[in-house]
Specification:
Helix content: 25-40%
Number of helices: 18
CATH superfamily of the largest domain: Aminohydrolase, N-terminal nucleophile (Ntn) domain
Number of domains: 2
Low-confidence stretches: 1-10, 330-335, 474-480
Number of strands: 25
CATH topology of the largest domain: Glutamine Phosphoribosylpyrophosphate, subunit 1, domain 1
Structural class: alpha+beta
Length: about 475
């Protein structure tokens, strides 16, 4: 994480790398660009640093991208410059590569046989090796993003045909990826063999949609069809929708944080209702670590469903005692730790009349650096709360993520440096408890905890056990 990112109050949360979206119409007269624009709005929570759209028209691809939110990058005039019955879009946080327009996506490659555009969510663990091989072969790069590695690999193999170019590329790359690829006459979706990052398929009248989350399909009036399976490639063109699997059967390892925090609550990921999983997490927290209290509050927004669940399980009344400003985003920079801590009160404020004189439980999705939790305890007690208890609906985050999450260094993860009791004292809370790993798995998919401690989900940031080998994590073997 860059020093600038660390200076933002939002850096106290883990950040998903990207969101991808694609639309394909069979009728060349239809406009896919406007639907991609609205689809990206629905995925804005997955990336707020840059946005881009590439559109295919008359077998050529044009792209517009820039820094900022979707509404800042695309005006009516900018959208009018893009035409096409097929288009792909991307919203980004920077995890691999710095935050600059050169790293904004989609990436477009133009070559003798045509053009392709690639939008990628995830992180390649062998990007440096592949980049060096391509550079040795004379391929040039314009960015530091590992996503450009993918578009250049596809372009290099394109003379073999689209299907072979895709399979050769995705067999060569390692890591996490949900890809949406646009050619002059096709839209392609691909998901890594472990299914770490989500991708789903939707249907339109006369067309198809690929989206990181089902909420994007809903936003443009599409019908959710299904999730793209781990290791699956979908090729959509005017003739057909072709599906094939490019890898041997691999253990599914969907990112568990999608359900804890990243995804919108109205999405369904791999048949799991995200809102329902968060309510269940709160119920399980209530069973595992109930405390006598007068009021339960959810830290907006992802902590709210869990707070409702906790209240149901414990009989504690749920209240709206914490208000979040909707207008404090990634551009709000606090240049030092002292100002960063004060900045949390700009983002969150307390309704004093709701908490005064009460024993309060606050439910949050995670604790990363501890800045937000510490400040919330302080302002709740300043508002007159008698006791403040913290309950967290993810296990302690002790390890970095290598698969597309913006994670601080291990030394900056407060749970890696402290016991639960030490952390409680540091935050100033009256008590602190995290959901168990078994409880988290049960909240995502009831019964999954009985199938084993991982049961189809990546828990690397909690356990240090990763689904695929990671350089620099000596002794950390892939989860069987």
């Amino acid at each position: 994480m860059s020093a600038e990112n660390a200076a933002r109050p939002e850096a106290d949360k883990l950040r998903e790398a990207c969101g991808v979206f694609g639309v394909y119409f069979n009728d060349s007269a239809k406009d896919a660009v406007s639907l991609v624009y609205y689809g990206l709005f629905s995925l804005q929570h997955r990336g707020q640093e840059s946005a881009g759209i590439a559109a295919a028209h008359d077998s050529s691809i044009e792209c517009r991208r820039g820094m900022g939110l979707v509404g800042d990058v695309f005006s009516g005039e900018t959208l009018a410059q893009l035409k096409g019955s097929a288009a792909v879009g991307h919203v980004r946080y920077s995890t691999s590569g710095s935050s600059c327009v050169e790293n904004a996506q989609p990436f477009v490659s133009r070559f003798k046989l045509g053009s392709i555009a690639v939008a990628h969510n995830g992180t390649l663990t062998n990007a440096d090796v592949v980049r060096e091989l391509l550079e040795d072969a004379g391929v040039g790069f314009t960015s530091s993003s590992d996503s450009e590695v993918i578009v250049n690999l596809i372009a290099k193999n394109y003379k073999k045909g689209l299907e072979k170019a895709l399979t050769d590329t995705i067999k060569f790359i390692k890591g996490s990826y949900a890809l949406v690829v646009l050619t002059g006459d096709a839209l392609v979706g691909a998901r890594d063999p472990n299914g770490i990052r989500p991708l789903c398929l939707g249907k339109l009248d006369g067309g198809w949609i690929l989206s990181s989350e089902s909420c994007g399909i809903d936003a443009v009036g599409g019908e959710f069809v299904r999730d793209i399976e781990p290791g699956e490639v979908i090729i959509i063109d005017r003739e057909d929708v072709l599906s094939f699997t490019f890898s041997e059967k691999t253990r599914r390892a969907v990112c568990s944080f999608e359900y804890v925090y990243f995804a919108r609550p109205d999405s369904v990921i791999d048949t799991v209702d995200v809102y329902g999983s968060r309510v269940r997490a709160g119920e399980i927290l209530g069973r595992e670590s109930a405390v006598s209290a007068d009021l339960v509050l959810g830290v907006p927004d992802s902590g709210v469903p869990a707070a409702i669940g906790y209240g149901r399980a414990t009989g504690t009344p749920y209240g709206l005692g914490i208000v979040k400003s909707k207008y404090v985003g990634r551009t709000f920079i606090a240049p030092n730790q002292n100002m960063r801590e004060k900045a949390v009160s700009v983002k969150h404020n307390v309704i004093e009349s709701e908490v005064r004189g009460k024993r309060v439980v606050i439910i949050d999705d995670s604790i990363v650096r501890g800045t937000t939790s510490r400040r919330l305890v302080s302002i709740l007690k300043s508002a007159g709360a008698r006791e403040v208890h913290i309950r967290v609906c993810s296990p302690p985050v002790r390890c970095p993520c290598y698969f597309g999450i913006d994670t601080p260094h291990r030394k900056d993860l407060i749970s890696n440096m402290n016991s639960v009791e030490e952390l409680r004292a540091s935050l100033g809370a009256d008590s602190l408890a995290f959901i168990s790993v078994e409880g988290l798995l049960e909240s995502i998919e009831p019964g999954s905890s009985e199938r084993g401690k991982n049961a189809g989900y990546c828990l690397g940031c909690f356990s240090g056990e990763y689904p695929i080998p990671v350089a620099g994590e000596a002794g950390q073997n892939p989860v069987p």
